[in-house]
Design a protein that fits this description.
With 290 residues, the protein is mostly helical. The protein has helices at 58-66, 90-106, 116-136, 138-289; strands at 41-44, 70-74, 77-81. Strands 1-3-2 form a three-stranded antiparallel beta sheet, with no helix packed on it. The relative contact order is 0.06.
Length: 290
């Protein structure tokens, strides 16, 4: 069903005469918008407002419910500016497009990304389009209003999601920063331990190299001593061998001489025996002869 009409400050749109001192405020004193508004009207000139009712058309009632009138006080006077109910033409649409482009350039709105200025100007353009459509067809305008509310709800949801994401990111960044400090402290401790271990490793390597060098020098000295000992032992063995050979040759000669003497003694004994036997034979033969 149609939206309920909002309570108007005053239904009477009183306009000051041209020669009166109470002229409507200029546009510089009001917030300029892409939405088309009527000329501001004076509602009251004193604390006691002059209230009189003037019946509004259904279209104006719907327009005022969709786009409430703007109110402000200037010099103790209450002014109200209602949204325009005049039908729009193609020229008005082109003028809206041109005004939108001009304001985007004047206010230096971003072309991409999140930009509050661009969002505000496009929202005003959407409101103006809703106003133009509502004048031609109130039901279509209310449907556009419903679409705009749904879009605003989605944008608000995305903003909430973005803010929660940013908050979560900040918490994560702070947590990571805290963890980073702990990790850096741990890294510093480990680096000190690594430095100490490297110094110990270097010390052990130097000690091992010194021990290997000392062992190599000792091996060299022992090898030289061993070579000298082997040389001395070989020389001593050669001398002993020569001495043994000499002794063995002398003993062999003595044995040969002893054997030769024994053989000679045996041959002399045999000759003496042979001579004795011959002598006995001769004596026996002479005895026979006698």
């Amino acid at each position: 069903g149609p939206l309920p009409s909002l309570k108007q400050p005053s239904a009477q749109r009183w306009r000051a005469p041209a020669d009166s001192a109470q002229l409507p405020p200029t546009m510089s004193s009001t917030t300029q918008s892409l939405v088309k508004y009527e000329t501001p009207v004076l509602i009251s000139t004193s604390k006691k407002a002059k209230k009189s009712k003037n019946k509004l058309t259904p279209t104006e009632d719907i327009l005022n419910s969709i786009l409430p009138p703007r109110e402000w006080t200037e010099n103790g006077q209450l002014w109200v500016q209602y949204v325009s109910s005049a039908p729009s033409t193609k020229k008005d649409v082109l003028h809206l497009q041109s005004s939108l482009d001009t304001k985007l350039q004047q206010r230096e709105a971003r072309e991409t990304g999140i930009c509050p200025i661009r969002e505000e100007l496009y929202s005003q353009s959407f409101d103006e389009i809703i106003r133009q459509v509502t004048i031609m067809c109130a039901e279509r305008g209310l449907l556009l209003l419903r679409v705009r509310k749904e879009l605003n709800m989605e944008i608000a949801a995305y903003q909430t999601l973005y803010e929660s994401s940013v908050a979560y990111g900040m918490r994560g960044a702070l947590r990571q920063k805290s963890n980073k400090k702990d990790v850096e402290a741990r890294m510093a401790t480990l680096e000190k331990e690594c430095t100490l271990l490297e110094a110990q490793i270097k010390e052990q390597v130097d000690r091992t190299a010194a021990m290997q060098k000392r062992a190599k020098d000792e091996d060299t000295v022992m090898e030289e001593i061993h070579v000298q000992d082997v040389t001395l032992i070989k020389g001593h063995n050669a001398k002993l061998r020569e001495t043994l050979k000499e002794k063995l040759s002398v003993e062999a000669e003595k044995k040969k001489e002893e054997e030769a003497a024994a053989n000679k003694a045996k041959s002399d004994e045999k000759k003496a025996e042979a001579n004795k036997e011959e002598k006995k034979k001769k004596e026996a033969a002479e005895a026979k002869r006698e």
